[in-house]
Amino acid sequence: MSAPDSHFNRSGPLAGLRVLDLSRLVAGNMLSLQLADFGAEVIKIEPPDGGDTLRHWRKGGLELYWKVYSRNKKSVRLSLKNSGDRNLFLRLAKSAQVLIESFRPGVMEALGAGPDVLLKANPKLVVVRISGWGQTGPYRHRPGFGSLVEAMCGFAAKNGFPDKPPALPNMALADMVAGLQGAYATMVALREAERPEGAGQVIDLSLLEPLHSILGPDAASHRVTGQVPARSGNRSSTSAPRSVFSTRDGGWVALSASTPGMAERLFQAIGRPELIDDPRFRANADRLQHAEELEAIIQEFIAQRTLAENLAHFEAAEVTVGPVYDCAQFEADPHVKERGILVETPDAEMGSVPMPSVVPRLSRTPGSVRLPAPRLGEHDEEILGPLRRRNDNPESSG
Protein backbone atom coordinates (compact mmCIF):
# COMPACT_ATOMS: atom_id res chain seq x y z
CA MET A 1 0.00 0.00 0.00
CA SER A 2 1.17 3.50 -0.80
CA ALA A 3 2.76 5.66 1.87
CA PRO A 4 0.64 8.58 3.09
CA ASP A 5 2.90 11.33 1.76
CA SER A 6 2.80 9.98 -1.79
CA HIS A 7 -0.94 10.68 -2.07
CA PHE A 8 -1.35 13.59 0.33
CA ASN A 9 -1.69 17.33 -0.17
CA ARG A 10 -2.20 17.52 -3.90
CA SER A 11 -4.68 19.91 -5.45
CA GLY A 12 -6.99 18.66 -8.17
CA PRO A 13 -8.89 19.66 -11.31
CA LEU A 14 -12.03 20.47 -9.28
CA ALA A 15 -10.23 22.89 -6.93
CA GLY A 16 -12.46 25.93 -6.40
CA LEU A 17 -15.68 23.91 -6.63
CA ARG A 18 -17.72 24.15 -3.43
CA VAL A 19 -20.13 21.32 -2.67
CA LEU A 20 -22.61 21.30 0.21
CA ASP A 21 -23.52 17.74 1.17
CA LEU A 22 -26.58 17.32 3.40
CA SER A 23 -27.00 13.65 2.50
CA ARG A 24 -26.87 10.73 4.89
CA LEU A 25 -25.43 7.21 4.59
CA VAL A 26 -23.97 5.88 1.36
CA ALA A 27 -25.25 7.26 -1.95
CA GLY A 28 -24.64 10.93 -1.26
CA ASN A 29 -21.32 10.27 0.41
CA MET A 30 -20.23 8.14 -2.55
CA LEU A 31 -21.23 10.95 -4.91
CA SER A 32 -19.46 13.73 -3.00
CA LEU A 33 -16.39 11.51 -2.50
CA GLN A 34 -15.84 11.42 -6.26
CA LEU A 35 -15.81 15.22 -6.34
CA ALA A 36 -13.73 15.59 -3.19
CA ASP A 37 -11.04 13.21 -4.43
CA PHE A 38 -10.46 15.48 -7.42
CA GLY A 39 -10.14 18.66 -5.43
CA ALA A 40 -13.64 19.95 -4.72
CA GLU A 41 -14.27 21.51 -1.31
CA VAL A 42 -16.98 19.22 0.05
CA ILE A 43 -18.68 20.52 3.18
CA LYS A 44 -20.71 17.93 5.05
CA ILE A 45 -23.62 19.66 6.76
CA GLU A 46 -24.46 17.37 9.66
CA PRO A 47 -27.15 17.45 12.36
CA PRO A 48 -25.57 18.51 15.68
CA ASP A 49 -26.99 15.49 17.54
CA GLY A 50 -24.84 12.66 16.20
CA GLY A 51 -23.97 13.75 12.68
CA ASP A 52 -24.33 11.70 9.51
CA THR A 53 -25.83 8.26 10.19
CA LEU A 54 -22.83 6.75 8.38
CA ARG A 55 -20.77 7.60 11.47
CA HIS A 56 -22.72 4.95 13.36
CA TRP A 57 -21.84 2.09 11.00
CA ARG A 58 -18.90 0.85 13.04
CA LYS A 59 -16.36 -1.94 12.81
CA GLY A 60 -14.24 -2.72 15.86
CA GLY A 61 -15.82 0.28 17.57
CA LEU A 62 -14.45 2.66 14.92
CA GLU A 63 -16.19 4.79 12.27
CA LEU A 64 -14.53 2.91 9.42
CA TYR A 65 -17.25 3.56 6.84
CA TRP A 66 -17.10 7.25 7.68
CA LYS A 67 -13.30 7.29 7.52
CA VAL A 68 -13.31 5.76 4.02
CA TYR A 69 -16.23 7.60 2.40
CA SER A 70 -15.72 11.01 4.01
CA ARG A 71 -12.03 11.56 3.38
CA ASN A 72 -11.21 14.90 1.74
CA LYS A 73 -14.34 16.47 3.26
CA LYS A 74 -15.09 19.09 5.91
CA SER A 75 -17.78 18.94 8.59
CA VAL A 76 -20.04 21.64 10.00
CA ARG A 77 -23.02 21.30 12.31
CA LEU A 78 -26.34 22.84 11.30
CA SER A 79 -29.97 21.91 11.93
CA LEU A 80 -32.27 23.08 9.17
CA LYS A 81 -35.14 22.88 11.68
CA ASN A 82 -33.56 25.81 13.51
CA SER A 83 -34.33 29.17 11.88
CA GLY A 84 -30.92 30.63 12.68
CA ASP A 85 -29.08 27.60 11.32
CA ARG A 86 -31.34 27.53 8.26
CA ASN A 87 -30.47 31.18 7.56
CA LEU A 88 -26.76 30.32 7.78
CA PHE A 89 -27.29 27.38 5.44
CA LEU A 90 -29.10 29.50 2.84
CA ARG A 91 -26.31 32.08 2.94
CA LEU A 92 -23.74 29.33 2.60
CA ALA A 93 -25.62 27.92 -0.39
CA LYS A 94 -25.05 31.19 -2.25
CA SER A 95 -21.32 30.41 -2.28
CA ALA A 96 -21.69 26.84 -3.55
CA GLN A 97 -21.88 25.36 -7.03
CA VAL A 98 -23.38 22.00 -5.96
CA LEU A 99 -25.81 20.97 -3.22
CA ILE A 100 -26.58 17.33 -2.41
CA GLU A 101 -29.50 16.22 -0.24
CA SER A 102 -31.15 12.89 0.50
CA PHE A 103 -34.25 13.79 2.47
CA ARG A 104 -37.60 12.29 1.57
CA PRO A 105 -39.28 14.21 -1.26
CA GLY A 106 -40.94 17.33 0.10
CA VAL A 107 -38.84 17.69 3.27
CA MET A 108 -36.57 20.41 1.89
CA GLU A 109 -39.62 22.36 0.73
CA ALA A 110 -41.23 22.01 4.16
CA LEU A 111 -38.05 23.38 5.72
CA GLY A 112 -38.15 26.42 3.47
CA ALA A 113 -35.04 25.32 1.55
CA GLY A 114 -36.47 23.68 -1.57
CA PRO A 115 -34.94 24.00 -5.03
CA ASP A 116 -37.10 27.02 -5.85
CA VAL A 117 -35.63 28.93 -2.92
CA LEU A 118 -32.08 27.73 -3.57
CA LEU A 119 -32.10 28.48 -7.31
CA LYS A 120 -33.62 31.91 -6.78
CA ALA A 121 -30.76 32.77 -4.44
CA ASN A 122 -28.12 31.03 -6.60
CA PRO A 123 -29.28 30.58 -10.22
CA LYS A 124 -26.18 28.58 -11.21
CA LEU A 125 -26.54 26.03 -8.40
CA VAL A 126 -26.75 22.31 -9.23
CA VAL A 127 -29.12 20.64 -6.75
CA VAL A 128 -28.82 16.84 -6.49
CA ARG A 129 -31.84 15.24 -4.84
CA ILE A 130 -31.25 11.61 -3.83
CA SER A 131 -34.16 9.38 -2.89
CA GLY A 132 -35.08 5.74 -3.09
CA TRP A 133 -37.80 6.03 -5.72
CA GLY A 134 -37.48 9.53 -7.18
CA GLN A 135 -39.16 12.88 -6.63
CA THR A 136 -42.29 11.83 -8.55
CA GLY A 137 -44.46 8.74 -8.84
CA PRO A 138 -46.73 6.85 -6.44
CA TYR A 139 -43.80 5.49 -4.40
CA ARG A 140 -42.03 8.82 -3.89
CA HIS A 141 -42.79 8.94 -0.16
CA ARG A 142 -41.80 5.34 0.61
CA PRO A 143 -38.63 4.70 2.63
CA GLY A 144 -35.74 4.56 0.17
CA PHE A 145 -33.46 1.86 1.54
CA GLY A 146 -31.17 0.30 -1.05
CA SER A 147 -32.20 -3.22 -0.10
CA LEU A 148 -35.77 -2.50 -1.21
CA VAL A 149 -34.50 -1.12 -4.50
CA GLU A 150 -32.21 -4.11 -5.08
CA ALA A 151 -35.23 -6.35 -4.54
CA MET A 152 -37.70 -4.46 -6.70
CA CYS A 153 -35.55 -3.55 -9.72
CA GLY A 154 -34.99 -7.20 -10.73
CA PHE A 155 -31.47 -7.61 -9.41
CA ALA A 156 -32.23 -9.97 -6.51
CA ALA A 157 -34.54 -12.15 -8.62
CA LYS A 158 -31.71 -12.98 -11.04
CA ASN A 159 -28.94 -13.11 -8.43
CA GLY A 160 -27.96 -16.33 -6.67
CA PHE A 161 -28.47 -20.01 -7.42
CA PRO A 162 -31.60 -21.49 -9.02
CA ASP A 163 -32.33 -23.77 -6.06
CA LYS A 164 -31.92 -20.98 -3.51
CA PRO A 165 -33.95 -17.85 -2.65
CA PRO A 166 -33.29 -14.59 -4.48
CA ALA A 167 -30.07 -13.06 -3.15
CA LEU A 168 -29.59 -9.46 -2.06
CA PRO A 169 -26.03 -8.11 -2.38
CA ASN A 170 -24.01 -8.03 0.84
CA MET A 171 -22.96 -4.44 0.19
CA ALA A 172 -24.77 -1.16 -0.51
CA LEU A 173 -24.85 -1.82 -4.24
CA ALA A 174 -27.82 0.40 -5.16
CA ASP A 175 -26.34 3.32 -3.23
CA MET A 176 -22.90 2.87 -4.76
CA VAL A 177 -24.19 2.75 -8.32
CA ALA A 178 -26.42 5.78 -7.71
CA GLY A 179 -23.51 7.69 -6.21
CA LEU A 180 -21.30 7.03 -9.21
CA GLN A 181 -24.01 7.96 -11.72
CA GLY A 182 -24.84 10.98 -9.61
CA ALA A 183 -21.25 12.22 -9.81
CA TYR A 184 -21.38 11.93 -13.59
CA ALA A 185 -24.73 13.73 -13.73
CA THR A 186 -23.36 16.49 -11.51
CA MET A 187 -20.45 17.12 -13.87
CA VAL A 188 -22.86 17.26 -16.84
CA ALA A 189 -25.02 19.80 -15.01
CA LEU A 190 -21.98 21.85 -14.04
CA ARG A 191 -20.90 21.95 -17.68
CA GLU A 192 -24.30 23.42 -18.55
CA ALA A 193 -24.21 25.90 -15.66
CA GLU A 194 -20.80 27.25 -16.64
CA ARG A 195 -21.98 28.30 -20.12
CA PRO A 196 -22.61 32.04 -20.40
CA GLU A 197 -26.30 31.41 -21.05
CA GLY A 198 -26.44 28.35 -18.79
CA ALA A 199 -28.17 27.90 -15.45
CA GLY A 200 -28.36 25.56 -12.52
CA GLN A 201 -30.87 22.76 -12.34
CA VAL A 202 -32.22 19.89 -10.25
CA ILE A 203 -30.93 16.33 -10.62
CA ASP A 204 -33.61 13.82 -9.59
CA LEU A 205 -31.41 10.86 -8.60
CA SER A 206 -33.28 7.78 -7.40
CA LEU A 207 -31.57 4.62 -6.21
CA LEU A 208 -33.95 2.55 -8.33
CA GLU A 209 -33.15 3.68 -11.86
CA PRO A 210 -29.32 3.60 -11.81
CA LEU A 211 -29.24 0.01 -10.55
CA HIS A 212 -31.93 -1.08 -12.98
CA SER A 213 -30.01 0.55 -15.83
CA ILE A 214 -27.04 -1.80 -15.42
CA LEU A 215 -29.09 -5.00 -15.64
CA GLY A 216 -28.74 -5.08 -19.40
CA PRO A 217 -31.37 -5.98 -22.00
CA ASP A 218 -33.68 -7.83 -19.60
CA ALA A 219 -36.78 -5.89 -20.66
CA ALA A 220 -36.04 -6.39 -24.37
CA SER A 221 -35.28 -10.06 -23.82
CA HIS A 222 -38.54 -10.53 -21.92
CA ARG A 223 -40.50 -8.97 -24.75
CA VAL A 224 -38.83 -11.18 -27.36
CA THR A 225 -38.79 -14.47 -25.46
CA GLY A 226 -41.57 -14.08 -22.93
CA GLN A 227 -39.17 -15.32 -20.25
CA VAL A 228 -37.67 -13.56 -17.24
CA PRO A 229 -33.97 -14.05 -16.40
CA ALA A 230 -33.40 -17.08 -14.18
CA ARG A 231 -30.90 -17.34 -11.37
CA SER A 232 -27.84 -19.13 -12.67
CA GLY A 233 -25.38 -19.04 -9.80
CA ASN A 234 -21.86 -18.50 -11.12
CA ARG A 235 -22.82 -19.37 -14.67
CA SER A 236 -23.40 -16.80 -17.38
CA SER A 237 -26.60 -16.73 -19.40
CA THR A 238 -24.67 -15.72 -22.53
CA SER A 239 -21.53 -17.87 -22.65
CA ALA A 240 -19.94 -21.03 -21.26
CA PRO A 241 -17.87 -22.16 -19.53
CA ARG A 242 -17.95 -19.53 -16.82
CA SER A 243 -17.84 -20.46 -13.12
CA VAL A 244 -15.61 -20.93 -10.08
CA PHE A 245 -13.71 -24.14 -9.37
CA SER A 246 -12.08 -25.48 -6.22
CA THR A 247 -8.38 -26.30 -6.09
CA ARG A 248 -6.55 -29.10 -4.29
CA ASP A 249 -5.45 -26.85 -1.41
CA GLY A 250 -8.89 -25.36 -0.69
CA GLY A 251 -8.55 -22.32 -2.92
CA TRP A 252 -10.82 -21.19 -5.71
CA VAL A 253 -10.30 -19.97 -9.25
CA ALA A 254 -12.68 -18.15 -11.55
CA LEU A 255 -12.68 -19.23 -15.18
CA SER A 256 -14.34 -17.65 -18.19
CA ALA A 257 -13.81 -18.97 -21.70
CA SER A 258 -16.41 -16.91 -23.48
CA THR A 259 -14.94 -16.83 -27.00
CA PRO A 260 -14.40 -19.74 -29.42
CA GLY A 261 -10.64 -19.24 -29.37
CA MET A 262 -10.49 -19.16 -25.58
CA ALA A 263 -12.61 -22.31 -25.33
CA GLU A 264 -10.20 -24.09 -27.67
CA ARG A 265 -7.19 -22.99 -25.62
CA LEU A 266 -8.92 -24.19 -22.47
CA PHE A 267 -9.57 -27.64 -23.92
CA GLN A 268 -5.93 -27.87 -24.99
CA ALA A 269 -4.75 -26.71 -21.55
CA ILE A 270 -6.69 -29.38 -19.66
CA GLY A 271 -5.43 -32.08 -22.00
CA ARG A 272 -8.77 -32.63 -23.73
CA PRO A 273 -8.31 -31.33 -27.30
CA GLU A 274 -10.96 -33.74 -28.54
CA LEU A 275 -13.61 -31.56 -26.84
CA ILE A 276 -13.11 -28.97 -29.56
CA ASP A 277 -15.01 -31.16 -32.00
CA ASP A 278 -17.36 -32.71 -29.42
CA PRO A 279 -20.91 -31.81 -30.52
CA ARG A 280 -21.78 -30.98 -26.91
CA PHE A 281 -19.13 -28.26 -26.72
CA ARG A 282 -18.35 -27.24 -30.30
CA ALA A 283 -20.24 -23.91 -30.29
CA ASN A 284 -21.12 -21.52 -27.50
CA ALA A 285 -24.80 -22.47 -27.68
CA ASP A 286 -23.80 -26.12 -27.28
CA ARG A 287 -21.59 -25.32 -24.29
CA LEU A 288 -24.40 -23.36 -22.65
CA GLN A 289 -26.76 -26.30 -23.07
CA HIS A 290 -24.23 -28.73 -21.59
CA ALA A 291 -22.63 -26.37 -19.03
CA GLU A 292 -22.94 -28.82 -16.13
CA GLU A 293 -21.12 -31.59 -18.00
CA LEU A 294 -18.38 -29.22 -19.12
CA GLU A 295 -17.88 -27.80 -15.63
CA ALA A 296 -17.43 -31.34 -14.25
CA ILE A 297 -14.62 -31.99 -16.74
CA ILE A 298 -12.88 -28.72 -15.88
CA GLN A 299 -13.33 -29.25 -12.16
CA GLU A 300 -11.66 -32.66 -12.33
CA PHE A 301 -8.55 -31.08 -13.84
CA ILE A 302 -8.40 -28.11 -11.48
CA ALA A 303 -9.01 -30.21 -8.35
CA GLN A 304 -5.76 -32.08 -8.93
CA ARG A 305 -3.64 -28.92 -8.58
CA THR A 306 -3.08 -26.20 -6.00
CA LEU A 307 -4.24 -22.65 -6.51
CA ALA A 308 -0.73 -21.51 -7.44
CA GLU A 309 -0.22 -24.43 -9.81
CA ASN A 310 -3.51 -23.77 -11.59
CA LEU A 311 -2.80 -20.08 -11.99
CA ALA A 312 0.68 -20.73 -13.38
CA HIS A 313 -0.57 -23.46 -15.72
CA PHE A 314 -3.43 -21.48 -17.20
CA GLU A 315 -1.43 -18.28 -17.46
CA ALA A 316 1.20 -20.12 -19.50
CA ALA A 317 -1.59 -21.45 -21.73
CA GLU A 318 -3.10 -17.95 -22.04
CA VAL A 319 -6.42 -19.10 -20.62
CA THR A 320 -8.51 -16.58 -18.71
CA VAL A 321 -8.38 -17.90 -15.16
CA GLY A 322 -7.93 -15.82 -12.02
CA PRO A 323 -7.93 -16.33 -8.25
CA VAL A 324 -10.99 -15.88 -6.04
CA TYR A 325 -9.58 -13.63 -3.31
CA ASP A 326 -10.83 -12.53 0.04
CA CYS A 327 -9.88 -9.01 1.15
CA ALA A 328 -6.68 -10.15 2.93
CA GLN A 329 -5.45 -12.02 -0.15
CA PHE A 330 -6.27 -9.03 -2.34
CA GLU A 331 -4.25 -6.69 -0.11
CA ALA A 332 -1.21 -9.00 -0.31
CA ASP A 333 -1.24 -9.35 -4.10
CA PRO A 334 1.86 -7.83 -5.76
CA HIS A 335 -0.20 -6.19 -8.52
CA VAL A 336 -2.36 -4.46 -5.91
CA LYS A 337 0.74 -3.24 -4.08
CA GLU A 338 2.58 -1.98 -7.16
CA ARG A 339 -0.47 -0.17 -8.51
CA GLY A 340 -1.21 1.43 -5.13
CA ILE A 341 -4.81 0.27 -5.27
CA LEU A 342 -4.95 0.69 -1.51
CA VAL A 343 -3.60 3.86 0.08
CA GLU A 344 -2.70 4.47 3.72
CA THR A 345 -4.51 7.59 4.93
CA PRO A 346 -3.35 9.29 8.17
CA ASP A 347 -5.80 8.88 11.03
CA ALA A 348 -5.74 10.17 14.61
CA GLU A 349 -7.20 6.97 16.08
CA MET A 350 -5.45 4.30 14.01
CA GLY A 351 -2.31 6.04 12.84
CA SER A 352 -3.40 5.31 9.29
CA VAL A 353 -6.35 3.68 7.57
CA PRO A 354 -6.01 1.51 4.44
CA MET A 355 -8.66 2.42 1.91
CA PRO A 356 -9.24 2.32 -1.85
CA SER A 357 -7.14 4.86 -3.68
CA VAL A 358 -8.64 7.44 -6.01
CA VAL A 359 -10.29 6.09 -9.16
CA PRO A 360 -10.17 6.59 -12.05
CA ARG A 361 -6.53 7.47 -12.77
CA LEU A 362 -5.96 10.68 -14.70
CA SER A 363 -2.55 11.24 -16.25
CA ARG A 364 -2.38 15.04 -16.03
CA THR A 365 -4.73 15.97 -13.17
CA PRO A 366 -4.95 12.95 -10.89
CA GLY A 367 -7.08 12.93 -7.79
CA SER A 368 -5.54 12.54 -4.36
CA VAL A 369 -6.21 11.98 -0.68
CA ARG A 370 -5.67 15.36 0.99
CA LEU A 371 -7.64 15.20 4.22
CA PRO A 372 -8.73 12.45 6.61
CA ALA A 373 -12.44 12.18 7.35
CA PRO A 374 -13.44 15.06 9.64
CA ARG A 375 -14.58 15.02 13.22
CA LEU A 376 -18.18 16.16 13.69
CA GLY A 377 -18.17 19.94 13.48
CA GLU A 378 -14.42 20.13 12.95
CA HIS A 379 -14.76 23.00 10.47
CA ASP A 380 -17.52 25.01 12.18
CA GLU A 381 -15.26 27.96 12.88
CA GLU A 382 -13.50 27.92 9.51
CA ILE A 383 -16.71 27.90 7.46
CA LEU A 384 -19.53 29.15 9.69
CA GLY A 385 -17.53 31.53 11.87
CA PRO A 386 -17.20 34.28 9.24
CA LEU A 387 -20.90 33.99 8.36
CA ARG A 388 -21.92 34.28 12.01
CA ARG A 389 -19.66 37.27 12.62
CA ARG A 390 -20.94 38.99 9.49
CA ASN A 391 -24.50 38.32 10.61
CA ASP A 392 -23.72 39.83 14.03
CA ASN A 393 -22.35 42.98 12.38
CA PRO A 394 -25.28 45.34 11.66
CA GLU A 395 -23.18 47.13 9.03
CA SER A 396 -22.46 43.97 7.07
CA SER A 397 -24.37 43.10 3.93
CA GLY A 398 -25.49 39.72 2.61
Keyword list:
398 residues, single chain, disordered N terminus, six-stranded parallel sheet, three-stranded antiparallel sheet, Rossmann fold, formyl-coa transferase, domain 3, 38% helix, 11 strands, alpha/beta, 2 domains
Question: What order do the helices and strands come in, and which of them pair?
Answer:
Layout: E1 18-21, H1 25-37, E2 41-46, H2 64-69, E3 73-77, H3 83-93, E4 98-101, H4 107-110, H5 115-121, E5 126-131, H6 146-152, H7 155-158, H8 173-193, E6 201-206, H9 208-213, H10 218-225, E7 242-246, E8 252-256, H11 260-269, H12 284-289, H13 291-302, H14 307-316, E9 321-323, H15 327-332, H16 334-339, E10 342-347, E11 351-356, H17 380-392
Concise summary:
It contains 17 helices and 11 strands. It is α/β, with parallel strands linked by helices and 398 residues long. The protein has 2 domains: 4-215 and 364-392, Rossmann fold (3-Layer(aba) Sandwich), CATH 3.40.50; 242-332, formyl-coa transferase, domain 3 (2-Layer Sandwich), CATH 3.30.1540.10.
